Amino acid sequence: MQISIFSTILVVVLGIFSGSAKAETGQNYSDSIEAIAKRRGVLAKEWRVNPSARLQNAIESEIISSVEELFGYWLGTTWALGAPQTTTPQSGKINCGTFVGRILHDSGFVVKVKKLQRQPSQLIIKSFVGRGRIRKFSNAKMDKFLLSVREMGPGLFIIGLDFHVGFLLQTEIDLRFIHASFETGTVVNEDAATAMPITTSGYKVVGKILSPRNVRNWLSGERIKVKGKW
To answer: What is the pLDDT of residue 23?
Structure first.
């Protein structure tokens, strides 16, 4: 009987700690979103006074840093299809399309996440990326695919696969794939060169975000029109 009582108490205590940790994560996430919005406001004022190539580069760096910050909160969050889809990391479930939309929305882009996540990956990409910044691959070998992406330079990308969508984050030395993974059942940040959803997908389409148009959308809060009617 003592063991049973102890076990019950332990479960209750662990549940309280778990709930507290999730609440804290949610609050920290909200705080990060608010801080990003404030930084965006400052940069928007600077842009109105003195737009320049230097400031454009600084804004792109800020957006990427903000996205990376938000990625960290979501790692380990449960992947699953169906409603409802969570808006808070470490709580509930999220699918790949909702994850992409949620990160873009929470980092400052004005977009309807529910509508965006219903679209095929190619239309998700086209909603944010102009034709000249998109590359498509059909049954391409991984070395050819990786070389082509590296040629597009460092930055933030959306990648669409046969039945999946996520982000690529490219630096001078690394290419990471951040997505709500059907393979692991969680949000993960993994090496793009060996990530199963990429290596096994016959179809790949990659769009590089943060063109001058993207930057203006982000600064002004102009709504991103979602391509597609699903």
So the answer is: 75
Specify the residue for token string 């205590």: 13
Closest CA to 128 of 152, 114, 150, 112: 112
Q: Work out the average pLDDT over 110-114.
A: 97
Helices (H) and strands (E) in the chain, counts: 8, 8
Q: How far is CA 210 from CA 64, 167, 174, 218, in A?
A: 9, 13, 19, 9
Cβ neighbours for 38, distance < 8 A, ≥ 6 positions apart = none
Structure tokens at 219: 């600064």
Mean pLDDT of the chain: 91
**ω before 120 within 30° of 0 (cis)?**
no
Rounded to 10°, the helix 212-220/53-74 angle is 70
Q: Among candidates 37, 207, 23, 43, which has minimal Cα distance to 133?
A: 207
In angstroms, the Cα distances linking 186 to 16, 75, 90 are 23, 7, 10
Q: Which two tokens stand for residue 15?
A: 């549940």
pLDDT of 34: 97
Residue among 138, 135, 111, 137 at smallest CA distance from 124 = 111
Query: What DSSP string describes 7-52?
Result: HHHHHHHHHHHHHHHHHHHHHHHHHHHHHHHHHHHHHHHHHHH---
- β-bridge pairing 78-79 and 93-94: parallel
In this prediction the pTM is 0.89
